[in-house]
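Notes from the 1:1 (GR / supervisor)

We went over the backlog. Supervisor wanted to see one worked example end to end before approving the batch request, so GR pasted a single chain during the call. The sequence is below; no edits were made to it. Supervisor asked that the structure be written out right there so they could see what the output format looks like.
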Amino acid sequence: MSHDSRPKAAELMDQSDPLFSKKGSFAEVFPSIESCVIEVERPKRGPYGEKEILKFTETNPPGEYVDCTNPKCYGGGFSIGIVLRKAVKNNDTNVNTSGLCKGQEGSPKGAKLDRDCMSHFSVAINIKYKSDN
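Structure output shown during the call:
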């Protein structure tokens, strides 16, 4: 990481131990999912301007977080893991949601945090569950 780079949520998550769950492969964490398509729309760079769409599947899954692209954001991203766990708990097959980045703009190492990051994420998930037959 360069001195100008700010760590994002996924990087901070990788460096920590989860408190209430365990890390594992997508199949281990979501054994009831047969297939899924996850599309995340986020800004290309910073909270405003052009957007990009990231596409994930059960064979190319996201991590717990989809990182924020705002170069001024510290610890930023959107927890796709929370959305997936809630969908599986409720046996939802289609989920559409959105939210703001969890990070804050500030100094590169997060020593001085100025304001909440305003990057916005939109998420669409389609899940097919394994049958119990």
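Supervisor's comment: The chain has a mean pLDDT of 84.
Batch request approved.
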